[in-house]
Amino acid sequence: MITLEMKGISVKVNEEGFMLDANEWSKEIAVEIAREEGIPELTEAHWKVIDFCRQYGMESGNAPTLRTITTRAGVSTKELFSLFPKGPAKKVAKISGLGKPEGCV
Amino acid sequence: MEEETRKIAFICSKGTLDMAYPALIMGWAALGNGIDVTIFFTFWGLDLINKKRVDHLEIAPVANTSMKMSMMGVDTGNLGIPNIMGVLPGMTAFATKLMKNKMQALDVPPVREYLQMLADAGAKLYACKMSVDMMELGMDDFVEGVIDIVTAGDFMDMTEGAQIVFI
Fold this sequence. Notes:
The complex is a heterodimer of chains A (105) and B (167). Chain A has 105 residues and is mainly α. Chain A has helices at 27-36, 44-60, 66-72, 77-83, 88-95; strands at residues 2-6, 9-13. Chain A has one domain (2-95). Helices cover 47% and strands 10% of the residues of chain A. A two-stranded antiparallel ribbon of chain A has the order 1-2. In chain A, strand 1 and strand 2 form a beta hairpin. The longest helix of chain A is centred in the middle third of the chain and has 17 residues, at 44-60. Chain A starts with a strand and ends in a 10-residue tail after the last helix. With 167 residues, chain B is α/β, with parallel strands linked by helices. Chain B has a 5-stranded parallel β-sheet with strand order 4-3-2-1-5. The longest helix of chain B is centred in the first third of the chain and has 16 residues, at 17-32. Chains A and B meet through helix 3, helix 4 and helix 5 of A and helix 1 and helix 4 of B.
């Protein structure tokens, strides 16, 4: 376990950088993690995805797979990959304070 | 210094329903992890991108030693589907329906939709020139997302430094 310090807030993450306790998440933390992941600013479109992931994660205990996001959050595959370029599966889960997605699709 | 992006390339040479999925599933996972994906469709693999064939891919029980009776929900252990039964009319359609139902239950999209997802996510899809010539096909025969018809040499050029998976 590693503790990540960001702007005075500390959160527990695993070796890969996924938060261990989804309840420690806040919008401020999301902005910081996003910056570390190469997304300088979170727009309304990003929040639409993150909000869906948070809701899904808190209900199911898992991070949604990409297909779950594209079929249920009203975001197309193209849009999702342009909002979170170079590996949206991990990036979205990290920014939403959830673990690594477990499904294959 | 920017980190070099990992690259992976799949060669799809089979046109059966079961062999359509490995590249789609691994390719999708790769794209989700930020890996560059190229897929080269050759020989029977062209069926996967052929508009007229993609929705009709099948799996045949004949000579398929992994397909057991128990997959149909009958508790028969390791008893296989006898080849003599597999040749009966309708058996291939039956096995295909069975597999499609199982995939659907797992929320795995059909091949056509999966290909579109991969293309939308940035996978580069190519058809093999020699196979295309042999089967007398053209770009018009292929689903959206296929970029071009290329030679084996072109494929080698465009996959320099990539990990290559032959299916």
